[in-house]
Amino acid sequence: MTTPDPAQPGTPGQIDDAGQAEEPLAPADTADTADSADDAARERALRAGLEDYELEDTDLVLLDADGEVIEGYEPEAALPVLAVVGRPNVGKSTLVNRIIGRREAVVEDKPGVTRDRVSYPAEWAGRRFTLVDTGGWEVDVAGIESKVAEQAEVAISLADAVLFVVDATVGATSTDERVVRLLRESGKPVVLCANKVDGQSGEADAAYLWSLGLGEPYPVSALHGRGTGDLLDGAMAALPTESAHGEVRPTGPRRVALIGRPNVGKSSLLNKIAGADRVVVDETAGTTRDPVDELVTIKDVPYVLVDTAGIRRRVHQTKGADFYASLRTQAAIEKAELAVVLVDASVPLTEQDTRVISQVVDAGRALVIAYNKWDLMDEDRRPFLEREIEKDLVQVQWAPRVNVSARTGWHTDRLVPAIQRSLESWDTRIPTGRLNAFLGELVAAHPHPLRGGKQPRILFATQASTRPPRFVIFATGFLEAGYRRFIERRLRETFGFEGTPIEISVRVREKRKR
């Protein structure tokens, strides 16, 4: 028996330094290794060529990440939680809007507008935290008011610090004193806000609130912004740098929101998937008002399914309960990772349906479109409907579509594979070398058209983040929207990205002056 010559590299049965027989590389493995080496060499060459161009500090941070995701939904630690509590109609939601810098919390000149605990991301003096708006806390109440008070108590228990809002024009009431006792029992740091102090004359009223025993009251006008800076400085001093209660995403089950017009079958679908009556179902449109989270295990994989209120029309055109429901649904989309948009197959696609789909795409969430009530379709209409769907959904052809019946459960099992594919695409990352090799081949075959005698040249590209995939292209000139759509289409053809929106941004950089 002859022993293979170890001096000849690549000989089958070659002996390594440890005396073990090495397996020869398969031809496919050899080709993959060569392609990877070529991609890496191309990346190094293009990266070196960028040094001849004027780059900003943000460009260097992006490039020095070396392929790591630098923008995403995974904070290093849970953000500290600041809960805003107080009696009804003392201005809590107005203060919340002032702190977050936008009108997001529902505000109306009557008590009891806010009912749920609603969380908002906020920032002050370079520190990020979670702000929780609560309903008015009252004592000895029944019905929905008692549930609102319970939610406020839950918010206190889950907060790292509490912002207690008191109406300085009214002074401390017996209800305020009861809330103070509750706050002391919680042991949480408390910052006292004396709201509705619109001038120096009101500061004397605020001084009376020392009697509550919570320390210095901060005189504030949430409506006009007076004194909110000092109040937030005090709140930051009370907040820890890391929360004991905050949520770090994306731990735990994936969040899937069921959205669509009223009475399209969202609650029925959730009950059918869960295999039990988890949420109320009624023929009356608009039965669901607030988002309902349900933990459901499907084929041994846990998901949080969020049943939402139906979106009727544009938010600014709604009023009353519809207005609140629209806001809650938008918040549910923002908190979800994927949205299943339900469309009624028995009626033509409406403007509301397309607006709902646009909300999901604009929020950067993965998308699955489910045509419900397919069992009610007339056999003669189905071929025509397929052509209508192709025309109506031309902008989101990348989204998987499933025909289902929430009432009977027909084809609901096909939703899970579609959800999984879309979430995988949402998480997909392309290596920088492979991305630049792809763009090099694409531009060589289909260069950007000349405009004004000039042709922009793509210098380098990288994927800045996932969830959704975001690509940054460095170029010598602006790339037209049509050409960016062409790049997106070819990205999908080459790498998949089924069920996820793609964002492509262009950074125009000029050569350094010598």
Automatic annotation (TrEMBL):
Protein name: GTPase Der
Biased composition (Low complexity): 23-34
Subunit structure: Associates with the 50S ribosomal subunit.
GO molecular function: GTP binding; ribosome binding
Disordered: annotated segments: 1-40
Source organism per UniProt: Cellulosimicrobium cellulans
InterPro entries per the UniProt record, alphabetical: AAA+_ATPase (IPR003593), G_ENGA (IPR031166), GTP-bd (IPR006073), GTPase_Der (IPR016484), KH_dom-like (IPR032859), KH_dom-like_a/b (IPR015946), P-loop_NTPase (IPR027417), Small_GTP-bd (IPR005225)
Function of the molecule: GTPase that plays an essential role in the late steps of ribosome biogenesis.
Location of the EngA-type G domain: 80-243, 254-427
Binding site for GTP 2: 260-267, 307-311, 372-375
Positions bound to GTP 1: 86-93, 133-137, 195-198
